[in-house]
Amino acid sequence: MADELPFVAEPPGDVARAHDLAAQAALHWELPAALHLRSGMNVLYVCGDEVVLRVCRPTTPPMQALWLAEYLTSCGLRVARPVRHDVVERDGLACMAIERLHPVGPTDWEEVGRMMRVVHDLPVDELSGRYPLPRGASFPHWRVEQLRDEIDDLLDAAAREALDAALVCHNGWRERAAAEPQVVCHGDVHPGNVLQTADGPVLLDWDLMCRAPSAWDHAALMTWEERWGGDPQLYERFAAGYGSSLRGDPMGDELAELRLLVATMMRVRAGRHDPAAAAEAQRRLRFWQGDPDAPVWRPA
Fold first, then answer.
1. Residue that finishes a domain, picked among 99, 117, 150
2. In sequence order, which residues have a C-beta less than 8 Å from that of residue 259 and are 6 or more positions away?
3. Residues 113 and 94 in one domain
4. What is the mean pLDDT of residues 12-18?
5. Pairing with 93, which of 150, 228, 240, 296 sits 20 to 30 Å away (CA)?
6. Is the confidence at residue 2, as pLDDT, over 60?
7. Do 76 and 176 share a domain, yes or no?
8. Residue 6, domain member (yes or no)
9. Structure confidence at residue 4 (pLDDT)
């Protein structure tokens, strides 16, 4: 199981094929025309005011995602619910129809923390075999040594020295993470994956669900103010709902910094073909080089 991939490990690829599949699915489900919303690891489309089509390249049978949504709902968690109970597939891509959520006001981060405690208490046995649950440390983008090698030619001497110094501080992190109690984790908790609705906050994007230390789901939020210019009370409210803060916890602090390192190196890599990503990478590298005036980062 340690070598499993998450539910989605790569983007759909040819966006034209995603467009064609979304159009086919809209006809199949007798929905309004699919209008492209955005592309990333998933390609999303809106069909009127009530439905979103999600096109992805799953690593396992896509019906598992529909099962997961129903299971999490039965556990008292707010997630985006499927509005059709079949999947349209073609050429390794899958299209699902889910409810379109409408944002209402600021996010209740204390409630998000409460829901994350529920996630961490989920029994692994009930998920195993029904939805991918790899170890978070096995994710391709967390192979930090390989990622560092991939970007070597894109770094100047100062950036190379700064990143290498930071990475040396985390030698052996996988072994330390493996020694921690392993829980079910959402895998990618940050403000972009939470939407406040009239019924409360909804947790989105379960593609990176995994087994990991509980700190895995705290890490991004712990640095949200400092590095991303976010709400200074966001993590404190999350921690209050969760029942404990991991500030000062060795694993929490280590994963928080490692997540920043991964985010930096991924922007450097993306900058090979994307000038905007290259510019953002330079912003992030200033932090690692100790620039006291290093700017806050911009999410990809």
1. 99
2. 219, 220, 223
3. no
4. 95
5. 150
6. no
7. no
8. no
9. 81
Residue 36: CB atoms within 10 A of its CB come to 14
Q: Which domain holds residue 50?
A: 15-99
Q: How much of the chain exceeds pLDDT 90, in percent?
A: 96
Are the beta carbons of 74 and 47 closer than 8 angstroms?
A: no
High-pLDDT (> 70) share of the chain, %: 99
pLDDT at res. 254: 98
Statement: residue 164 has pLDDT above 80:
yes
- Mean pLDDT of the 258-265 span: 97
- Nearest 10 degrees: CA dihedral of 191, 197, 203, 205? -80
Q: What CATH number does residue 87 fall under?
A: 3.30.200.20
**Same domain for 87 and 116?**
no
Question: Domain for residue 238, yes or no?
Answer: yes
Check whether residue 60 and residue 158 sit in a common domain. Answer: no
Q: Over the chain, what HEC string results?
A: CCCCCCCECCCCCCHHHHHHHHHHHHHHCCCCCCEEEEECCCEEEEECCCEEEEEECECCCCHHHHHHHHHHHHCCCCECCECCCCCEEECCEEEEEEECCCCCCCCCHHHHHHHHHHHHCCCHHHHCCCCCCCEHHHCHHHCHHHHHHHCHHHCCHHHHHHHHHHHHCCCCHHHHHHHCCCEEECCCCCHHHEEEECCEEEECCCCCCEEECHHHHCHHHHCHHHHHCCCCCHHHHHHHHHCCCCCCCHHHHHHHHHHHHHHHHHHHHHCCCCHHHHHHHHHHHHHHCCCCCCCCCCCC
Give the model's pLDDT for residue 1: 40
179 is a domain residue: yes
> Within a domain: residue 186?
yes
- Domains contained in the chain, number: 2
- CA angle 175/132/81 to nearest 5° reads 130
